[in-house]
């Protein structure tokens, strides 16, 4: 009788096949399994890498974004040669180089309530490697309807978390833990808050590990939330999760079905689209309240005394700053705006930030202290300065 795996697979996967509880049967299960990864970014890249290396038979990749230079710090399947290429295609090429025997399905279209069931339905497991609330709720609802586990990861700054939703008959779904989405105004992205690349690697690897455990039968099926802090001691904490909520609108409702998913506007349910901070920072505003970068340049070149305040966090000020600007983080200025008014009432005040949003808040706070002073924030912030005045000024 021929062996259940090709002979080369015994060499390729031998180091994991000899593990107690894994064995030949575990490898065969991996080969026969299918996993779809939604998001080929910071979390999806390490997850995809280890799923392919472990020998998962079929891997789906969903991502409608393209590779940008800022991605390369953490999205390890992409490279400089991938810039401008769809992330799903770039990731697929990379994992095929790792393991050519894996079947890779590439989906470069956006996942929506209309197509999610069709796209995700043919896979055994779903990995949520996204970074936005509407997609998280959509994936959770689809996993509940399909009765499939959802392995969800998240990372920001120095911290991350990972859990498996819809695990077993009583495992909670995402809605059980987070029945109401946070306001979009307060949900920061990696671009806004920052992210240490290795943190996404840790969480993404853990997601792949959970998938392998579930496929091979090594998982204890006990729902828990794993929290990680790169600067914490110890760095990992595990929280046992309760069972499904009896009033959950998804996993506890009798009539929850495909029509409910298809007809739900997940973006609006989560408070609407994410704020366009770049666009908001470029709005002209009330005449006399906002100055352009060209206006600021004229004042700087004239040699006239100005009160130039930079309200970005001190860490960002340390990255780059305009000559003669003074670092006053927004939270400090907002607490005591009168402390940063110029001594001479005739001295104009200009306020800058990264994109031109925080500077508006700071300017309003200062105007309330002493009406009549010339206090203007700069439209578009330092990004506009780099694009319109000095292309050698860093954009980050």
From TrEMBL:
Pfam families, per database record: Rhodanese (PF00581), ThiF (PF00899)
Binding-site residues, ATP: 42, 63, 70-74, 87, 131-132
Cofactor(s) needed for function: Zn(2+)
GO BP of this protein: protein urmylation; tRNA wobble position uridine thiolation
Cytoplasm among keywords: yes
A molecular function GO annotation: adenylyltransferase activity
Protein name, entry field: Rhodanese domain-containing protein
Gene, per the UniProt record: UBA4
């Amino acid at each position: 009788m021929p062996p259940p795996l090709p002979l080369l697979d015994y060499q390729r996967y031998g180091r994991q096949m000899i593990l107690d509880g894994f064995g030949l049967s575990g490898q065969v299960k991996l080969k026969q399994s299918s996993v779809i990864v939604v998001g080929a970014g910071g979390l999806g890249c390490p997850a995809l890498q280890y799923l392919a290396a472990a020998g998962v038979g079929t891997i789906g990749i969903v991502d409608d974004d393209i590779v940008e230079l800022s991605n390369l710090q953490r999205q390890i399947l992409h490279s400089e040669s991938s810039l401008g290429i769809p992330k799903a295609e770039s990731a697929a090429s990379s994992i095929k180089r790792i393991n050519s025997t894996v079947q890779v399905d590439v989906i470069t279209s956006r996942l929506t309530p209309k197509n999610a069931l069709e796209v995700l339905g043919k896979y055994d497991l779903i990995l949520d490697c996204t970074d936005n609330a509407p997609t998280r709720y959509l994936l959770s609802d689809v996993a509940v309807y399909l009765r499939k586990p959802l392995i969800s990861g998240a990372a920001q700054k120095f911290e991350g978390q990972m859990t498996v939703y819809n695990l077993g008959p009583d495992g909670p779904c995402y809605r059980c833990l987070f029945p109401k989405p946070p306001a979009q105004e307060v949900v920061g992205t990696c671009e806004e808050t920052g992210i240490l690349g290795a943190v996404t690697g840790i969480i993404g690897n853990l997601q792949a590990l959970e998938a392998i455990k579930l496929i091979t039968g090594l998982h204890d099926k006990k729902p828990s939330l794993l929290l990680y802090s790169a600067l914490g001691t110890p760095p990992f904490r595990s929280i046992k999760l309760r069972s499904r909520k009896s009033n959950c609108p998804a996993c506890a409702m009798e009539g929850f079905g495909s029509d409910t998913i298809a007809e739900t506007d997940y973006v609006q349910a989560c408070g609407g689209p994410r704020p366009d901070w770049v666009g908001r920072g470029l709005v002209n505003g009330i005449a006399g309240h906002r100055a352009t970068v060209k206006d600021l340049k004229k004042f700087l070149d004239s040699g006239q005394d100005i009160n130039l305040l930079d309200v970005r966090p001190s860490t960002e000020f340390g990255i780059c700053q305009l000559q003669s600007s003074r670092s006053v983080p927004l939270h400090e200025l907002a607490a005591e705006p009168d402390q940063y008014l110029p001594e001479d009432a005739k001295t104009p005040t200009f306020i800058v930030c990264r994109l031109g949003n925080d500077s508006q808040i700071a300017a309003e706070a200062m105007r309330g202290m002493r009406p009549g002073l010339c206090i203007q924030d700069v439209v578009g912030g330092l990004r506009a300065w780099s694009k319109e005045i000095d292309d050698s000024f860093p954009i980050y």
